[in-house]
Design brief:
Rossmann fold; Arc Repressor Mutant, subunit A; about 35% helix; elongated
């Protein structure tokens, strides 16, 4: 069983490495977020132990990029008891389990074995809303079967809106969920990106799926599974775009 440990405190990393090796794991250790991300995408691990506060990229950024890259290795996050990040946040961001420092080594091993038994988490399903579909793993967005190229930020924004289809979401909520936590610029950046998104997913298709709720925020209107193009099957678009 291969374990990747991403931890910048070298003494702690070394204790974990030695202990896990004794337990029969094959252990690689990386000391910053960049190297951790690189290792996790380049090699296959059964489980990853990921510290949150890391130089380079922090644990949240590492896990987000891993998932974006379609790497679904289970991740156990290490959180500091007095840290500003809580465990709920760790789960929201795609961790499969967490341990608060200082932790018992025996507990760590038990949790890692449980994660390995459970295997990679289930991939998120393709989100659909009317004729619009979004595949978070392949990072594809289709409208009536045509692929739409989105920038990573537009993609993240659309994912968030689709996950909250039918709900009114405020600009501040969107900003928190989609932008870097360190972003402290103008909340109106959200408006700008909603505009970009509309020009790609709505305007060319004569749709108006993102509603502006004045003074509040936005709502992606909920649409049934079957639009005029028929059931959203992955196999073929209902209307061939050109004669064969
Ligand atoms: Ca750390």
């Amino acid at each position: 069983m291969r374990v990747l440990v991403v931890e910048d405190e070298t003494s702690l990393a070394e204790v974990v490495r030695r202990g896990l090796t004794r337990e029969g794991f094959v252990v690689d250790v990386m000391h910053d977020g960049q190297d951790g991300l690189w290792a996790a995408t380049e090699s296959a691990y059964d489980v990853i132990v990921l510290d949150i506060m890391l130089p380079g990229l922090d644990g949240y950024q590492v896990i987000a990029r891993l998932r974006e890259a379609g790497v679904w290795t289970p991740v156990l996050m290490l959180t500091a008891v007095d840290g500003e990040h809580d465990q709920a946040e760790a789960f929201n961001l795609g961790a499969d389990d967490y341990l608060t420092k200082p932790f018992s080594f025996v507990v760590l091993v038990a949790r890692l074995r449980a994660l390995i038994r459970r295997g990679a988490p289930e991939r998120p399903v393709v989100l659909t809303n009317g004729s619009l579909s979004l595949d978070p793993v392949r990072r594809r967005v289709l409208r009536h079967g045509s692929e739409i190229a989105l920038t990573p930020k537009e993609f993240a924004l659309l994912t968030f809106l689709m996950m909250h289809a039918g709900e009114v979401v405020t600009k501040a909520t969107i900003l928190d969920a989609v932008w870097d936590p360190a972003y402290d610029g103008d909340v109106n950046i959200v408006e700008v990106y909603v505009g970009y998104l509309r020009r790609k997913i709505d305007t060319p298709f004569a749709e108006a799926s993102i509603e502006t709720v004045r003074g509040v925020g936005y709502r992606l209107l909920e649409a049934g599974p079957a639009g005029p193009a028929g059931p959203a099957g992955p196999a073929e678009p209902a209307e061939p775009a050109e004669p064969a």
